[in-house]
Amino acid sequence: MGWLTHELERAPCTVEISHRFESLHAHVRFDNGTTVYPGDSVRVHGPEIMAPYGEVIREAREATIVRASGLERLWTRLTGDFEVMELCEFSFSEEVTL
Amino acid sequence: MNVQNMHSADATTAEEGLAIQEEQAKFDSKAATETAMQNTLLTPRFYTTDFDELDAIDVSPVRDDWDRLIAQMVSDPNKGHFKKNEDWDRIDWDGMEPQLRKEFIDFLISSCTAEFSGCVLYKEMKRRGTNKDVTQLFQLMARDEARHAGFINDALREAGVAVNLGFLTQKKKYTYFRPKFIYYATYLSEKIGYARYITIYRHLEAHPEHRFHPIFKWFQEWCNDEFSHGEAFALLMKTDPKLTSGVNVLWIKFFLTAVFATMYVRDHQRPAFHKALGVDPDWYGQEVFAKTSTLSKQIFPITLDIDSPRWSAGLKRLQRANADLDRARKQGGVAGFARRISAQMRAVTAFAGLYFIPAKKHRLPASTRLEPAY
């Protein structure tokens, strides 16, 4: 990992999208066991995956992980906490007027 | 034979041709409905945390309470609850007052996104962890959140809003939260969620004429899930006394203030929603703050002095500054910029004013566990 450079990594992944009444979820699992770290970006390749209502779709895809530089990782660790209020649920969006 | 994928010209008999046409018609009408729906892209955020720290959690000091709570979650008392039955009344969406419709859809989309993001976060924690107690808990919570999201999604579909889960193929950045911040924020979020839902539920029990959508009838069992999730985070915090003492008490005070203040501001931005429910947002805010404070005494050594005159005055100042800030942003230009700076400073001062109201201190109970009682 460089302090200022990005590294690209490709990883096979399994995408699961459930668009059912019982469960609405979407997850990406890297099949080679790799993990993401603070500041990394992930993009799953291929066309948009749309699960029709009532269905679960599992697809094998490839993803590119853009590894954050050392500096970015440090920065994300130091400042990520500022966004922690996103975890709180208030029923409404932050839009002041609709 | 898969009639859906055939064209009627491929049919070898008249009956088969009709069957194909019929299937095609059904398919077309379904596709037309999907296209006509307003498309809302769900945009959950993606987080990482210190997974080694999560793995190091040892629940032995609260083992009995922990096992009881997990057993209750595993038994899944709400499994059959999130089903639409005869209590699910038909809603005339087109006849709904437009502002109410907008605010209510904002409520549904925001709630759905929150449940969905919760599910993503919990699932990630489950997947990256190796501590069996912790991963089991996060798996169970992810299950509940995905179920809630599915239920809200169904209500949205009735309103002609389709959620789009295509975000996975967009580039997404993983941010980072320290585990303790996740505990404080999600603990409070789950408990305030419980207090919000149960207060509306009890209010509508007494005033059913204000129940403008059937989803509110499901709030009681729904918020019991939120309650159990909050219990789990309380027990997690109980395993490490440092999390609720020393300098961390200042963090706890910050989270309490931020969560209460944000709720106050957001609720006051949705007047049509609260008017339709017959709820005064000031009354509602105080009710929810009082309930959340009582509950949070199970693990937090302080509660905010929400009865202080400085409290309600500060909230009003914050609300006004926030509304001014929005107007200034929309105004733009040099004058808008100056007003923005002024509004931002007033918002910061108002928040600081709330934060520095002396908190009420109390002793933590020996046993952390609570049952939903409101």
From TrEMBL, chain A:
Protein name as catalogued: Uncharacterized protein
Annotated source species: Mameliella alba
